[in-house]
Amino acid sequence: MEIERIPTQNYQNRGGYDIMSIILHFTGGGDIDGTMNWFKNPKSKVSSHYIVSRSGRVIQMVDE
What we know:
Blueprint: E1 3-5, H1 32-40, E2 50-52, E3 58-60
């Protein structure tokens, strides 16, 4: 599986805490490019580690 790396600055440091869970969100509208652009926009103040499109395209925006 190919994972595209398109970083964003919209994240905070976990302060050394381990990852304890995975949260999945489903968004019914829009497309992966629109979501990626919103997550890269500093005004949005939001992001996710990964975005997965309906076609299977995967973008990683934040390091684990």
